Automatic annotation (TrEMBL):
<keyword id="KW-0520">NAD</keyword>
<keyword id="KW-0809">Transit peptide</keyword>
<feature type="domain" description="Dihydrodipicolinate reductase C-terminal">
    <location>
        <begin position="118"/>
        <end position="258"/>
    </location>
</feature>
<keyword id="KW-0457">Lysine biosynthesis</keyword>
<keyword id="KW-0028">Amino-acid biosynthesis</keyword>
<comment type="pathway">
    <text>Amino-acid biosynthesis; L-lysine biosynthesis via DAP pathway; (S)-tetrahydrodipicolinate from L-aspartate: step 4/4.</text>
</comment>
<dbReference type="Pfam" id="PF01113">
    <property type="entry name" value="DapB_N"/>
</dbReference>
<keyword id="KW-0521">NADP</keyword>
<keyword id="KW-0934">Plastid</keyword>
<dbReference type="Pfam" id="PF05173">
    <property type="entry name" value="DapB_C"/>
</dbReference>
<dbReference type="InterPro" id="IPR011859">
    <property type="entry name" value="Dihydrodipicolinate_Rdtase_pln"/>
</dbReference>
<keyword id="KW-0560">Oxidoreductase</keyword>
<dbReference type="GO" id="GO:0009570">
    <property type="term" value="C:chloroplast stroma"/>
</dbReference>
<dbReference type="InterPro" id="IPR036291">
    <property type="entry name" value="NAD(P)-bd_dom_sf"/>
</dbReference>
<dbReference type="InterPro" id="IPR022663">
    <property type="entry name" value="DapB_C"/>
</dbReference>
<dbReference type="GO" id="GO:0009089">
    <property type="term" value="P:lysine biosynthetic process via diaminopimelate"/>
</dbReference>
<keyword id="KW-0220">Diaminopimelate biosynthesis</keyword>
Amino acid sequence: MGKAVAEAAVSAGLQLVPVTFSSKEKPSRTLQVGSMDMHVHGPSEREYILSSVLDEFPNLVLVDYTVPDAVNDNAELYCKLGVPFVMGTTGGDREMLYKTVQDANVYAVLSPQMGKQVVAFLAAMEIMAEQFPGAFSGYHMEVMESHQAGKLDTSGTAKAVISCFQKLGVSFNLKQIKKIRDPKKQLDMVGVPEEYLSGHAFHLYHLTSPDETVSFEFQHNVCGRSIYAEGTVDAAMFLYKKVQSKADKKIYNMIDVLREGNMR
């Protein structure tokens, strides 16, 4: 995702700062993005390097895509240095994440889903749940989500959609989610194209009425990472404008980005 966002940023005409971080202490390598070499630094260098980058690029907006276990530690560093950031990583202690950002009074876009069209779908679900609570009372629901094997956590998007259905009256436990990470099952059962096994998001929500005479299906399948990368770049541009205008509100999500009209 990091590389995909970097490529999308260059395509959008933004200035890309050639610095990124790795969980490995001595990554000793560079990452090629277009004609630019991105310098990869280990975790022990993070604070020093990021502080130096911030001195050189005071209008920096940082983008974070990492593993769930790193969410809170990363956010604490960004808040300590006062750098505005867009976090597309899911997982971590979300309550603590919001508290950390709020206490530091730092500008941030925090969203478990960066795909603009998927976010619009989520917003529609939230409106339906708010206006028609209990509309699906008694319905049985099955949920399947398939992502690349490297995605360790359960989809934040799936959790958000399920929360809406719970408000609509559906009884469902997150432990009931069918989480598929086996490439063979993804090919044979889910129908993921082989070239996208390393990067996809297939979701299916199937609801059945108590007497099994009525059924509904909500499905969204994403191949590749471009939808998230483009949304992330829009979020970074949105956040930059908020910082420059000294907006009173500091913490945003992707629905805020969409409401601003940033649907390129």
